[in-house]
Amino acid sequence: MIALYVVAAIAVFAAARAILERNTGRRFPYANVLNFAVAGSLVLLLDHPITLIAAAAYFVGSTLEANAIASTYAGGMKR
Amino acid sequence: MIFELQVVFGLIALAGALSAALLKDPYAKLIALGILVSGALPFIVDRGYLDVAIVASLIAPISTIFVLMAVRRAET
Q1: In terms of residue numbers, what domain contains A58?
Q2: Would you state the pLDDT for residue A38?
Q3: How many domains does chain B have?
Q4: Residue A78 falls within a domain, yes or no?
Q5: For a 10 Å CB count at each end of chain A, is N or C smaller?
Q6: Which parts of chain A have pLDDT scores under 70?
Q7: Under DSSP, is residue A78 helix (H, G, I), strand (E, B) or coil?
C-alpha cells in the first residue's frame, strides 16, 4: 500500500515538472519518469494477473511515444 | 480506488488537458497529450476493464505518431 503512495507522489512531481518546465528539451525526461510511475501504479492498483499484461502494454506504448517525440524534436532521421 | 489516488490521477489528467489546450509549442502539446492519457488510464484499469486498457495504451502512441508527422510537415 505504501509503494502505491510513493509511486503516485513521483507521478505528481514528474507531471508538475513536465508541464511547468520552460525549456521544451527539459520536458522529455520528466515525461519519461511520469510514464514509468504510471506503469508501476497500474501493476499495484488491481490484484489480477492480466494487470501485468496491461502495464507491459502501457510501458511499451508510452516508451514508443516518448521516443518518437524526442527523436523528431532532435531532428529526425537524416536521409 | 483509494480516494487520494483518484485525486492524484484526476489532477494529472486535468493538468494534461489544460496544458494541451494552453501551451504554444507543438512538442509541448504532444507531451501534454501523453500526460492526459497517462492520467486517464489508471481509472480504466481500476474498474477492471483490462482489455480496454491494453487497447487504449497501444493505440494512443499510434495517434501521437500521426500527429507528429503533421507537426513535422508543418515545420518544414
Answers
A1: 2-73
A2: 94
A3: 1
A4: no
A5: C
A6: 78-79
A7: coil
Which structural domain, as residue segments, surrounds residue B40?
3-75
Q: Is residue A47 part of a domain?
A: yes
- Give the number of other CB atoms < 10 A from CB of residue B31: 30
pLDDT (tens digit, 9 = 90+) per residue, B17-73? 999 999 999 999 999 999 999 999 999 999 999 999 999 999 999 999 999 988 888
Q: What is the ipTM of this complex?
A: 0.89
Number of H helices, E strands in chain A: 3, 0
B40 part of contact set with chain A, CB < 8 Å: no
Distance from C-alpha of B41 to C-alpha of B56, rounded to nearest angstrom: 8
Contact B50 A50 (CB under 8 A): yes
What's the number of domains chain A is made of? 1
The grid coordinates of residue B69 equal 508527422
Amino acid identity at B17 = A
Distance CA B72, CA B42 (A): 31
Pairwise CB contact (< 8 Å): B27 & A66: no
